[in-house]
Automatic annotation (TrEMBL):
Sorted UniProt keywords: Signal
Segment forming the signal sequence: 1-22
The organism of origin for this protein: Paracoccus marinaquae
Lineage: Bacteria, Pseudomonadati, Pseudomonadota, Alphaproteobacteria, Rhodobacterales
Name this protein carries in UniProt: Lipoprotein
PROSITE patterns hit by this protein: PROKAR_LIPOPROTEIN
Length: 124
């Protein structure tokens, strides 16, 4: 095979690798979580729960962003130097699902906050 005939194959593999990369946490949409889970809570309980979920979401986001960064490095190495590095790409998985779930929990807590007239302010 000549270099010219392998170029489309390499380009296709690189494109496939890019679509398999893990997303940064800010690109992951929230999963739906029912606000009914939180409506029975007092304003104080909602505040404590919001802080807990926000802390867990921050940790999950850092881990997801690290995975996205690792995947991007693997694609770069694979594209330029060593194509077997494409096998190191993990893509989105349980970590991304955790980020989506925690984002959904925060939205549900915010909804319960509004419905209960708690007046808790959430950072954006």
């Amino acid at each position: 095979m000549s270099i010219r005939s392998t170029a489309p194959v390499i380009a296709g593999v690189a494109l496939l690798a890019l679509t398999a990369c893990a997303d940064n946490s800010d690109k992951i949409a929230a999963s739906y979580v029912s606000p009914a889970l939180y409506q029975g809570m007092s304003c104080q309980q909602l505040s404590v729960e919001a802080q807990s979920v926000a802390n867990r979401a921050a940790q999950a986001s850092v881990a997801q962003d690290k995975q996205a960064q690792n995947d991007a490095v693997a694609v770069g190495v694979a594209t330029v130097l060593f194509w077997p590095a494409l096998f190191l790409i993990k893509g989105d998985g349980a970590q991304a699902a955790e980020v989506a779930r925690l984002k959904g929990e925060m939205q549900a807590i915010e909804t319960a906050n509004r419905l209960n007239n708690c007046g808790i302010t959430f950072g954006s």
